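look at this fold:
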Amino acid sequence: MNEDRMICHCAEVSEGDIRAALAKGAKTINDVKRMTGSCTMGRCLTMKPEQTCCGPEILKIIDAYNKSLMLNVITNNQPNAETIVAIEEVQEMKKNPNLAKAYDDVHIMMEEL
């Protein structure tokens, strides 16, 4: 990721400009076009050093951005250590009813304090 890398040479739109549009809510290439002016002039074929249209590059940036959002959601929804311990305790209580009774007794005592 290079925020300064020029993606659309005719409209002078950088990778950072495209990522900023995505962060502000752009979802599609048409949203990015409206918000940045990129991929609207048709002159990248002659102005870009690679002599290619900027559209496919914009789509790659959108795809990478969406994948990073998905990874964020997946990572942030992982159970924490306390949740894992609680799940293990419940599973243990299901196996051993006496343990469940002891847990209930302790829980009642804690509420009374």
Q: What stands out?
A: Residues 81-112 form one domain. DSSP finds six helices and two strands in the chain. The longest strand covers residues 6-8.
